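Inverse folding, one chain.
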């Protein structure tokens, strides 16, 4: 039986819980200067911890923001930005008890959806999280890059130093306006915790300016690999993130980065599955996908509100029975139509758990594929095809924000 207590983190306990997360991620404790600069990005609010006596041995953290769902509506979203259990306290039920405390608290605070980026892919399904968005890692052979004559381009690109970037880039991100479903808002604490750090670590920022002003940016870093012979030296460029208001700004940022001298190979990290870069090159093989991975794990906290927040394609209705053992108020049957959803007592056409519903929600997975995989129990043979049409989206979901 567990001998620790799970409760909300109180003021004065923030740094100790932050160090628990750091240890789990194999990072050293936060030094005094770093804590002085970033403490406000790790407030007690939204955190639960498992305590063994006075010492925290596990923590789960969240911050409040919003996420764009299919159709463009923004809904309240809890970004789970830290989950950890100290190595000497694992396999004692700490994580399950932390989640049992956090999930109803998120509901009580009015969040419709929650999401996280998983360090391990086998953990979070048991708590109702499903892979709702995927990403790809691109590898570009710079020597083979030749732009098609019809590839868009506009404006100009300039480099910013750390101080200017920290001041300007948040405004650009806000002005772009979360154009894709899966995008989330970035509150001030996110910028403090995630943006200044990469710049201090040697990342640089490129900003695109179009006809109406600054409308895109990319954060990147270069690494040189020396060799005995100068001819064998190699430099890699890694794009940490890239956001743009339109295809022309995106293309211009790629043109700039892939035009930097003395770079042999470039990598685009965490790019959407439908990034248009390969289609803008004369040789699309110059840009290849070297990995496709899960990006955003989503949790429907209020199934009725979440289903009603998004839009649907045209198809005959489907009655979907949902099972949610962690938040049982969500369990039940929902009639999904082109015009929205409602609770119903009608017989189910399909049955699934809330994790699988999360996989469908942003349009990343075809319901018929998940039915074939055994993830959806089918009572009406025509229902999976109708669900395909209802949940289909024009573009791939993509969060594009690490937290």
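Residues assigned per position:
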């Amino acid at each position: 039986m567990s001998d620790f207590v799970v409760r909300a983190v109180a003021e004065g306990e923030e740094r100790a819980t932050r160090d628990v997360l750091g240890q789990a991620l194999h990072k050293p404790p936060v030094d005094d200067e770093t804590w002085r600069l970033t403490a406000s990005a790790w407030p007690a609010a939204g955190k639960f911890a498992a305590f063994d006596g006075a010492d925290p041995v596990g923590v789960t953290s969240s911050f409040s923001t919003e996420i764009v769902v299919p159709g463009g509506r923004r809904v309240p979203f809890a970004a789970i930005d830290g989950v950890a259990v100290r190595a000497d306290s694992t396999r004692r039920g700490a994580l399950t008890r932390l989640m049992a405390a956090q999930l109803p608290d998120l509901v009580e605070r009015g969040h419709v959806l929650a999401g996280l980026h998983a360090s391990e892919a086998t953990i979070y399904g048991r708590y109702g999280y499903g892979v709702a968005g995927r990403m790809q890692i691109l590898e570009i052979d710079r020597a083979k890059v030749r732009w098609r004559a019809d590839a868009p381009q506009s404006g100009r690109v300039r480099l910013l130093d750390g101080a200017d970037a920290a001041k300007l880039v948040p405004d650009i991100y806000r002005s772009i306006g979360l154009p894709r479903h899966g995008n989330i808002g970035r509150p001030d604490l996110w910028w403090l915790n995630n943006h200044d750090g990469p710049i201090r670590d040697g990342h640089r920022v490129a900003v695109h300016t179009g006809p109406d002003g600054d409308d895109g940016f990319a954060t990147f870093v270069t690494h040189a690999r020396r060799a005995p012979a100068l001819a064998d030296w190699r430099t890699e460029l890694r794009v940490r993130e890239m956001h743009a208001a339109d295809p022309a700004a995106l293309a211009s940022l790629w043109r700039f980065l892939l035009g930097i001298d003395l770079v042999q190979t470039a990598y685009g990290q965490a790019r959407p599955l439908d990034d248009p870069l390969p289609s803008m090159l004369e040789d699309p093989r110059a840009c290849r996908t070297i990995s496709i991975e899960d990006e955003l794990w989503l949790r429907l906290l209020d199934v009725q509100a979440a289903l009603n927040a998004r839009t649907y394609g045209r198809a005959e209705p489907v009655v979907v029975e949902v099972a949610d053992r962690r938040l049982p108020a969500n369990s039940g049957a929902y009639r999904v139509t082109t015009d929205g959803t409602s609770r119903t007592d009608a017989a189910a056409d399909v049955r699934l758990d809330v994790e699988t519903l999360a996989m469908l929600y942003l349009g990343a997975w075809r319901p018929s594929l998940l039915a074939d995989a055994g993830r959806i129990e089918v009572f009406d043979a025509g229902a999976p095809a109708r669900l395909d049409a209802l949940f289909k989206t024009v573009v791939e979901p993509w969060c594009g924000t690490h937290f």
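Residues 146-282 form a domain with the Aminopeptidase fold (CATH 3.40.630.30). DSSP finds eleven helices and 17 strands in the chain.
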